[in-house]
Amino acid sequence: xxxxxxxxxxxxxxxxxxxxxxxxVTATTDDEVVSAVREADAAGTPLLIIAGGSxxxxxxxxxxxxxxxIATTGFALSGTxxxxxxxxxxxxxxxxxVEAGLAGIECLAGIPGSAGATPIQNVGAxxxxxxxxxxxxxxxxxxxxxxxTIPNAECAFSYRHSRFKADPGRYVVLRVRFQLEDADGQxxxxxxxxxxxxxGAAPGDRVPAAAARxxxxxxxxxxxxxLDPEDHDTWSAGSFFTNPILSAAEHEAFLARVxxxxxxxxxxxxxxxxxxxxxTSAAWLIDKAGFTKGYGTGPARISTKHTLALTNRGxxxxxxxxxxAREVRDGVHAAFGVTLVNEPVTVGVSL
Length: 351
Fold this sequence. Notes:
Blueprint: E1 2-8, E2 20-27, H1 30-43, E3 47-50, E4 56-58, E5 63-70, E6 75-78, E7 81-85, H2 90-99, E8 102-103, H3 118-121, E9 124-125, E10 128-129, E11 134-141, E12 146-151, H4 163-166, E13 171-179, E14 181-182, H5 193-199, H6 209-222, E15 245-246, H7 248-262, E16 271-272, E17 278-279, H8 282-288, E18 300-302, E19 310-312, H9 318-336, E20 345-347
Parallel strand pairs: 2-5, 3-5, 4-20
Antiparallel strand pairs: 1-2, 6-7, 7-13, 8-14, 9-10, 11-12, 11-13, 15-17, 16-17, 18-19
């Protein structure tokens, strides 16, 4: 294992923000990951897990403890069954499954980060979520001190959530296993209306999986959601806020606020979320509250391509970013009575 002291963490995140770690350890095998975690736990040392760094907001003071960078590799495809090591680049893994003619994760192309992060956040986009194809997750359980295999049914997956996110200090994901579909090179049925329009298809149609992947990459790039070192619109964590899910009473109150602010004909996005719940669009809320694309004058601003992305224009600090996030969150609440929740994990700071 490689070990560094007073090591910069900003270069390991897509925001390129945050102070140094007291100690940075890079593990390239599952055994090294487990060994580093056990060592930190035995010594009572605070531990920060980093892989792709695409969902992290680290405070300017950094992290007083051991940062463990998971750099494990492993792509094993057997028929329609796929196993990925936690450190595998997710977007590259998606490309390889499409090249193999398999369907199930083609609409998750271009999402930055590592495979091990996908079950934690229940990563999803353009009508697909990893929870629909994950069969089990292999993780180190810091509570029992053992490596465990957790089947899908016990992962407690929900919208951008899981048992791993609910109990963030307990599990360290080592491997993720998936069941994909052999549809003769075709995609899974297209669910997302915007993607269907881009493909010239109808919702529910199948298209060549490679075409679906390319269309998703094009849509994501147009929103600044594909990493590009030269484009500050991509110096972000993607969507900074999750789409709010409202109870029936909350939705009714929300619609009243919308009508009051925007007029009786205004129609905010609404999607059934089960059990009488309704999901609405965080991007719509932000825009209608007055925070349009490119909003801001400082080093942290809203992306010029997508209102959900808060970006580092090159010289921002984490506090600059958080100040903008708080302004947007508070402005949306003042306008519509809905409180936005940040999607990235915060380290040493909070909204």
